[in-house]
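Recall from the previous lesson that a structure prediction takes nothing but the amino acid sequence as input. Here we apply that procedure to MFS transporter from Janthinobacterium fluminis. The sequence below is the only information supplied.
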Amino acid sequence: MNGFGAQISGLALPLCAALLLHATPAQMGALVALQALPFALLTLPAGVLLDRKRKLPIMLFSEIMSGVALGSVALAHWFGVLSMPCLYIVGFMIGTGFVLGGGAEQVFLIQLIGRDRLIDAHAKFATTDSAARLIGPGIAGILVQLLTAPIAVLVTACGYALSVLNLRRITVSEPQPAPSDKHPLHDIRDGLAFVWGHPLLRALAWGAGLWHLLYYGSAALSILFATRELGMTPGALGLAQTLGGLGVLVSSQLIKPLTRRHGPGTTMLVGLASTTLTFMLMPAIPAMLWGSAHASAVAYGVLVFFFDCGVTLFFIPYMAMRQKVTPDAYLGRMISTMRFLTVATAPLGALAAGAIAEHFSIRTGLACIAACSLVLTVTMVAASPVRSVRS
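The prediction returns the following tokens.
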């Protein structure tokens, strides 16, 4: 249920900023940057927490915090005080929930199923998530168009409440991690040393880190591009975004045969190439493709399909490879350290993209992202040890 809610809020929250508050590109960049800022501030201490505490209570706390934050958007709108600073705070709280809850979920999954079944499990989760990706954005677009964006955000908050109820019904006996007498800073240093001293984890860190830098830059501009450059309504944007769910579904069926035939490293690079192609084609969509705004919207939806397909092919092998080479005692710190190294730079990408779009144009900002993504893909294919990973 939280995946369904996240799909609605992922579209409704930026639409609140773009349509209700008439946010500038720089403000959209700041909103996306603040959602990523907790990765820079909190992931390393969160890793120590995950290695020392049970994961289920952390997951519950994260869901409750995200739901309350989203519910406050609707309240602020009803009382006439909704503003960009309000959305900045909500974005930061959602990012914090994802840092804590997302890391706890990954460790919890490994404890439940073991390492050898990770790719199979992630593929099944991707199939399930594709349903949320197919339905969520469409409902978000309809809710925004018919009932306003704050109502759509309120629906998301209700989804998080249901997720909390589902988590409370989990009856798995989770062992209490062994107590540690080490200072948290010592554990943080150990986590950084472990990741940076492992050649594969180091390569995955810099590759995914640069990709996140570009992705968050694109996220800061994509809603503005669709609504202002292509003239898409919230309903049309929601329907176009649902094609991303189809992309997740298709890639979740491809991931197992691709990894068996070519290995997780090559599969990850195929996913990277697919996202790069999308970055390159997106700014080339005209406002009136073949004289039709509807054709432009369809072209946007097709690119969303290939992008989400690429993201799934990129991240499932990425997560499986890093978890397979990490001992149990380091899992929490490894996950949080990798999240720190890969997403800490994301606020800079969002702010830079917003600044470029503010001073030049939205298409110029997207074109810069495309050029950098092409360089990253060529470098990863040519110089990274990821391609040689076969199992």
